[in-house]
Structures are given as structure tokens and as C-alpha cells.
Please model this.
Amino acid sequence: MKIAVIGTGYVGLVTGTCFAEVGIDVTCIDIDQRKIDNLRQGILPIYEPGLEEMVTRNVQKGRLIFSTDLAEAVQDCDAAFIAVGTPPGEDGSADLKYVLAVARGIGEHLSDYCVIVTKSTVPVGTAAKVQAEIERAISRRGAAIEFDVASNPEFLKEGAAIDDFLKPDRIVVGIASDRAEEVMRRLYKPFLLNGHPIIFMDIPSAEMTKYAANAMLATKISFMNDVANLCEIMGADVNMVRRGIGSDARIGTKFIYPGIGYGGSCFPKDVKALIKTAQDNGYDMQVLRAVENVNEQQKQVLFNKVSHHFGGDLRGLKIAIWGLSFKPKTDDMREAPSLVIVEKLLGAGCIVSAYDPVAMPEARHSLGDSITYAKDPFAALIDADALLIVTEWPEFRAPNFEVVGRLMKQKVIFDGRNIYDVKELEEEGFLYHCIGIRSRHEEPAAVASTGR
Model:
């Protein structure tokens, strides 16, 4: 089979590469010539474990081609995947201008039957707009070309995207014809042979499934963070509570770890988009509005703890930060809690020194030179008054605390991801603050100051 994938961002590049990995001929298209030139040389625009090696392997085998020529890519292809960005507008709605521009381009060049697949996360009703855009473009040419539109939302976790694509929990496909179903079933046959389920449904249901899934996961995170804050106030241990409720099969252990809020490219914008979709249709998603509010406030919890510990006066203090990306195994800085924390620290007069294994170049786009970027974790600690754990990268889990304490001016750690043991840190002579567990030296006011 032959497919085109339009858009070489996170979703498009992973999708195209993984299809090539199972033997499908793939052309990945982008309008950015520099990005295409880099991809041809094996230089990727994103960091994802294992992706660079897979791209190189499939390019060498001739199964994966990078191009800016949409017209050539859609000739004689079985399916064309639209995988361009859908950035949130100021009102939270998804901006479809890139999706519809691609649809228009496909309609201008399509020569034979093809299934046009929306892979981007798009609101319910987008497939109908894509179909109308393609029909108009074909009509302007005076042509009569059959095509189908399908919805095939992605469920990729950054940092584990390749496994998620090659070994999916489920493959969701929205179709409106038997012919489209046949094409999509053949396309995903290599995955079905390994027992991974494919679920066919109508197109609006497929579009809604993606938003509903992300909104549910975001809800679990915000709920657990709310519980964690109450645990601190009441003197309970959120880790014990998490174990207690996670053993219930109806709840499970995933996405109930307390922390400093969710970020990234999916949860924030998808929650906003679903709220806006409901609003546009006369319905108020009250639970999701609360989820979003909790998450925004949770990003300030670590700063509030720092401020409370130092008596509200942070001027001139040096703060070390470990981790900038919104989660490990990615360089994605979109909606990262670190951005809120750094902004608050700088606004309070702090000097910030940060280290992240892969995200520092990306962080510069948002933070510029307002902070110092350390060459390694320990370099960030020199003369620091406090260390903040913001992203739970594996290399931060077991540092030499004797060295950590020797480098720091004050032995104070604020752990936004609960990766350390309270007793161990206190035995090492540190003052240790985490999420959802009140330290012996901490008053409930440190949590209550979130302003809720």
C-alpha cells in the first residue's frame, strides 16, 4: 500500500515512520523546505525515544520519503493522512485553518479514489468540513473524482509514542462507507495480526472519542491533585491514599499520581476545545471547567511552598530547577508547569538555574536568557538556596545526596513529582517538601495558600 502523511510534526512523523516500519510506502509532506531537508539528513524536529533510528532505517530501505510536493504524493495513494497542527484559539476552540488548507490542496491534486484521513485532533464535525473543502476544490477543476473521508484519532503518549503506535490499546476509525472501511482495514492489517483491536464507528463518534479520552485522563490528574492538597491540610499521606484507591479495578493506578499539573500538546488544548464545543452547542461542561481550574492552580503550588518556606521574601535567592519539559522523555515545553514556576520565581526576584536532559534548547524559545541553563544537574545546584524537582527524569531519581547537599547553600528540596522518600531526605539533613504529604516542619498554610 502507498500513503501520504501531510505534516511532519509529532503526530505526522511518528505516524508515517511507524507505517513505514510495517512495510507500507510512505511519503511525508511538509511545506517547510528546511524541515524536509533536515529530515532527509536524519535531523528530526522533535525528540522521541527510538524515532531517529527508525526514521533512518526506513529512509535507507526506501519506504519513507520526505517531500514538499503534495501533488505528487497524493497521486495513486490509498490514503492521505492530515496530521497538521490545530492550535487553540483565544476562546479555546481548535483552529482548523491548517487542516482545511491541506484538504483544499488534496482536492486540487487528487486524481483517483483515496481515503482522506484526519489524524489531527479535531472537533466533532471537522470531517464534514474537510469533505466539503475537497469537493469544492475538485468541482473548481471540473473533475469528478470519488473519495472518502475518515477519522483516525491518535492516542500517542509523548515519550512512548512508538510503542503506542505499534502496540496500540485500540485503533479507532470513523468511516462512512464500506469502501473506506476496507482500505483502513488493509492499512492496519499488520497490527490486527498481533491482536490489537480495531474499532470502527461513525465519524462524529470517532472525533469525540479522542477528546473524551484526553478529558477523562485530565480529570483523573486534577482530581488526584485536589485530593493531594487536602491530604496535606489534613495530615494524610497521598501516597497511601493513592495505593488505597488505585487497587480498585474501577479506578486503577494510572494517572492518579499527584504532581504540579498536566501540560503538553494534548490535554490542555483538548480540554479547552471540548469545553468550547459544548458551549457553542448550548451546554456547560461544569466538571471539565473545574478540571481546568484545578490544573492551572496546581502549577503554582510549588512556588507557593517556596514562598511560604522563605517567609514570602525571595529576592536574591538562587533556585535550582531539575526538569523543564512537561514530562520525561520529551522536549515538549507546551503548557509545561515549569514555565509558570519560572515566571513566578523571576517575578519574585529569584535567580534561576535549570537543567533538563533534552528540553533546554526548546525552553530557550519561551524563556530566552532569563535563566541560566546548566551543563549538568549538579552544575545547577552550586550555591542554590533550594532545589525544585519539576520533571521526573530517571536520572534525577537517585542522585548522590551528599554531593547535592555539599553544592547547595541551603539543603532545601521542593519535590513536585514525589520521586524521593521523605525519611531518607530528612536523614540526609534536607528540609523536604513534596505534594500531598505534609512535612514535619511544614504548616497547612503552605498548601492553603493556593488561593482556593
